[in-house]
Specification:
By secondary structure, the protein is of the alpha/beta class. Helix content is 40%, strand content 17%.
Length: 680
């Protein structure tokens, strides 16, 4: 087998293949690449030449122009990435081409003949799934090696001769290739078990429990791309959203979908959905607010604002007076209460009252129509009764009253919250009004819940949620109602749960999302984190997630781990960083949050940046606060004072497990004090 950077004279083939000159084969494949790139440029130029002027009106023109702009963006040729990465030589004669090139997007020539087939097309599935035991009508699979965007090598895998395939060196080198900057797609290296998840039906919600380095995030992003390709029209209307743990993470994954031709996918955080509320709060209070037991409390708090009608409606039109008695108003309110959302119920009350007035009009021989009923519903007498009985509310108003008024909270809580929990929830110094209140992140989920009780939340077609194990029940409910008519891809690792309310089971997560029947798939075989590093981190698993199977890595990574005492912290750190700088790849110096400034000062002589919550840094050398490391990866990781990382928060061992598994080439652990007991 050949590696991705081997010279043509070292490219090997099965002895059963006809003798061919490897250099000539490589030249022919390079020619096909050049032809394909030229065809893609022509496709893009054609898209750019199209005009929106054909649309009839201004609005239609704007919509058509937006679609054309998306098409042009999707046809961009990323010169540093391969246009195609595989070739299938089929063993059967049918309506499909005998030779298929598999790449990131479809490319055709000026006669509409396919030069490259999109990796998401049904015929391309064989590239990921075919084996000698199940060749899927293939005679041979060819993999291509690239350096930058230049085709440098190929290797052939015969699939029609039985036996077993050896390890692909091109595949291995692509997986292990050093990286810097944003996350790359893994479209050329998707494994069969990953491909099964990627190609799951749209109607199926999939939950992926993935150990570090198993590619769960990439699988989720590629599933989004696959679904957009397969259900383009439906999802273009309803939308697809990616939800990540923080903005730094979103910046890291931001280039994956555009590289696959998908440029119109919303990527956001939970805070981006629920509001960027950041007032500090006692974790014990946040845990109560994040518990699903508070849902009935919120529901009672909202509906307690409806009061018993004491007056009827008196509507005057000219010399005529029409009356709806107070007991009739009470009957209407009773029939509506709890049968609809709060907002539609308020509108329905106005219409019901107006209808009763119209009945009185008809009894007097008049013939009112719907326009009259709407006018009555908007009239002052009806609005006064509605406002008095069923007041217009915002989520902020309801939550402000709930957290400010002990008696109101006690009545709403009933038996769902203990007296101690109620006391914790109450503000010590309540804001004068909901407009001046300062909200916490946990409050955002409560206001979103109330908002859905008032007016229905608009749903999406598909939702991808990463690091889902860290979300509270209320945050999960907020995400779930945004795809209540669609499906979801739920990603995470129970061992990496670092919040006080982190989930202990995926069944629990799926229940809060509203997808109890979702399928849970476990990925335990890693391709990125070296085995020596992963085994070291796995010493923490019995303490943080004893029920999970230990992860396994295909990469031995001998010599990838170094654990060093650091009697002189600054000197030891500088030495370790200089060693990493002498090697290829990105470097992350992961430190306790409280030590970021100190570590950055110690590295003042070296060009570096500090990663922040909102930053989109792509610098080679980054100082990374431990709380921002989740979901990121670096070729070389230097961890400073692991014991301090553990001691900084209640689930510090889980945080350390996250930190230790960010390395894809080497891990250096520097410690002045004792290591955590599990690592000694």
């Amino acid at each position: 087998m050949s590696g991705s950077r081997l010279s043509p004279d070292r490219i090997s083939h099965s002895s059963d293949n006809p003798p061919e000159d490897p250099a000539e084969i490589l030249a022919a494949e390079r020619a096909h690449l050049a032809t394909s790139r030229a065809a893609l440029r022509a496709m893009r130029e054609h898209a750019q030449s199209l005009s929106s002027d054909a649309a009839g009106d201004w609005v239609s023109q704007q919509i058509l122009q937006a679609l054309l702009d998306q098409r042009v963006a999707a046809l961009a040729d990323h010169s540093g990435t391969p246009l195609f990465f595989g070739r299938l030589d089929r063993a059967v004669e049918d309506d499909l081409p005998g030779t298929v090139y598999v790449g990131r997007r479809h490319v055709h020539d000026d006669r509409s003949r396919p030069l490259v087939i999109d990796w998401r097309a049904p015929v391309s599935r064989a590239f990921y799934q075919a084996s000698p035991s199940e060749p899927m009508d293939l005679a041979r699979r060819r993999r291509f090696g690239y350096h930058g965007g230049d085709l440098t090598a190929y290797e052939d895998e015969p699939l029609d001769q039985g036996g077993a395939l050896g390890q692909s060196r091109i595949l291995t080198e692509e997986i292990e290739r050093p990286r810097s900057g944003p996350m790359r797609d893994i479209v050329a290296t998707i494994q069969p078990d990953q491909d099964e998840i990627v190609r799951s039906e749209l109607s199926r919600t999939v939950c992926v429990q993935g150990a570090p380095g198993t590619g769960k995030t990439a699988v989720g992003l590629h599933r989004a791309a696959y679904l957009l390709f397969t259900h383009r029209e439906r999802l273009a209307r309803s939308g697809v959203m990616i939800v990540g743990p923080n903005r730094a993470f979103l910046s890291y994954i931001s280039s994956v979908l555009p590289a696959l031709g998908e440029v119109k996918v919303d990527q956001t955080t939970v805070a981006g959905i629920l509001g960027d509320h950041s007032t500090p709060e006692n974790p014990a209070v946040s845990a109560i607010k994040g518990d699903a037991r508070i849902v009935p409390v919120l529901k009672r708090a909202l509906w307690m604002h409806i009061v018993k009608p004491v007056e009827g409606v008196l509507f005057t039109k000219g010399i005529n007076r029409y009356r709806v008695a107070d007991h009739e108003v009470r009957e209407i309110v009773a029939s509506l209460r709890g049968t609809t959302r709060y907002g539609p119920g308020r509108a329905a009350l106005a219409q019901r009252l107006a209808h009763m007035v119209l009945v009185r009009m008809e009894q007097r021989g008049e013939s009112p129509d719907d326009r009259v009923q709407d006018a009555v519903a908007r009239s002052k007498p009806v609005k006064q009764v509605v406002d008095a009985v069923w007041p217009k509310l915002t989520p902020q108003q309801v939550l402000h009253r709930l957290l400010s008024d002990p008696a109101f909270l006690a009545t709403a809580a009933k038996e769902d919250l203990t007296a101690e929990e109620q006391a914790l929830l109450l503000w010590v110094k309540p804001a004068k009004s909901f407009r001046s209140a300062k909200w916490s992140a946990a409050d955002g989920a409560l206001m979103d819940e109330l908002g859905d009780m008032i007016e229905r939340t608009a749903p999406l077609g598909h939702l991808v949620v990463d690091e889902a194990q860290d979300l509270s029940a209320m945050q999960l409910r907020a995400l779930g109602r945004r795809c209540r008519t669609g499906s979801a891809t739920v990603l995470g690792d129970l061992a990496q749960g670092t919040t006080p309310w982190s989930a202990r089971s995926w069944k629990e997560v799926l229940a809060h999302l509203g997808f109890e029947d979702g399928a849970v798939t476990e990925l335990t075989l890693g391709f990125r984190v070296p085995r020596e590093v992963l085994d070291y981190a796995a010493r923490l698993l019995p303490s943080v997630a004893p029920d999970l199977a230990p992860p396994r890595s295909l990469r031995p990574g001998i010599g990838s781990l170094s654990v060093r005492p650091a009697p002189d912290p600054a000197a030891s750190l500088t030495e370790a960083v200089r060693e990493a700088l002498a090697r290829e790849g990105s470097i992350g110096v992961i430190v306790p949050d409280a030590s970021v400034t100190e570590v950055s000062t110690a590295l003042a002589s070296l060009d570096h940046r500090v990663l922040s919550q909102d930053s989109a840094e792509e610098h080679r050398l980054l100082v990374v606060p431990a709380t921002l490391a989740k979901g990121l990866e670096y070729d070389h990781v230097i961890v400073v004072e692991p014991a301090d990382i553990v001691n900084a928060e209640p689930r510090g061992l889980a945080r350390l497990y996250v930190v230790l598994t960010r390395a894809v080439t080497s891990l250096t652990v520097l410690h002045t004090g004792d290591l955590p007991a599990q690592l000694r």
